[in-house]
Amino acid sequence: MTGCATVPVADEANSPYFAPNHLLTLPQPGDLGRPLEMSQMITVRHDNDVFAFEGHIGVTPERFYLVGVDGMGRRAMSVAWDKSGKITAERADWLPAAVRPGPMLADIILIYWPATVLRPALENAGAVLVDGPTSRSISIDGKEILKIDYLAGGPQATTGRLRYRNSAWGYEIDVQSVEATP
């Protein structure tokens, strides 16, 4: 079935841009500080479109992996990133063009990696991180372009709700996460 086909994604779409012309310098997967297995229900709003899917994230010191599936169980996207910095991705041909693997990876890193790791990576892109007890924001030239509200828990909370707004790309994401326990 061609409607369920996934195709490799071009390198530019794999690049972790968090805003137009602002590339995130990737930390290491292990810079998260611990291994992680997490499941998420994600709702993306972009213009007048709403897209919902389920995400599964795994992080080890050597590797990050994301698989997203839609409500019918079809694989929407997969993204792998290893400690060498290599990013590989596949995305379903039916996904909206605005849903790109590289920016999605950048979003996840900006949401969950420690502020001490993110600050130098963002400075290389001309951005500033402000980390609060229940929110995180990123600004460029004094203008907030990203805002993360941790609605349950604080920064790096992997169980609970969060709302993420990226005004540079024009989307908002609601996430409900549950961390798998060993």
Residue fraction in strands: over 45%
> What is the averaged pLDDT score?
88
Radius of gyration: 15 Å
Strand order of the largest sheet: 1-8-7-6-5-4-13-12-11-10-9
Number of helices: 3
Given as residue ranges, the uncertain stretches (5+ residues, pLDDT < 50) are 1-5
Shape: globular
Structural class: mainly beta
The helix-strand sequence is EHEEEEEEEHHEEEEE
Could you characterize the architecture of this molecule?
The protein is 14% helix and 47% strand. With 182 residues, it is mostly beta strands. The strands form two sheets. The chain has an eleven-stranded antiparallel beta sheet. Strands 2-3 form a two-stranded antiparallel sheet.
Write the layout of secondary structure elements.
Layout: E1 6-8, H1 11-14, E2 17-19, E3 22-23, E4 36-46, E5 49-59, E6 63-69, E7 75-82, E8 87-92, H2 101-112, H3 115-123, E9 127-131, E10 135-140, E11 143-150, E12 160-166, E13 171-179
Antiparallel strand pairs: 1-8, 2-3, 4-5, 4-13, 5-6, 6-7, 7-8, 9-10, 10-11, 11-12, 12-13
Question: What's the gist of this structure?
Answer:
With 182 residues, the chain is mainly beta. It has helices at 11-14, 101-112, 115-123; strands at residues 6-8, 17-19, 22-23, 36-46, 49-59, 63-69, 75-82, 87-92, 127-131, 135-140, 143-150, 160-166, 171-179.
Key descriptive features of the protein:
182 residues; mainly beta; 11-stranded antiparallel sheet; two-stranded antiparallel ribbon; 3 helices; globular
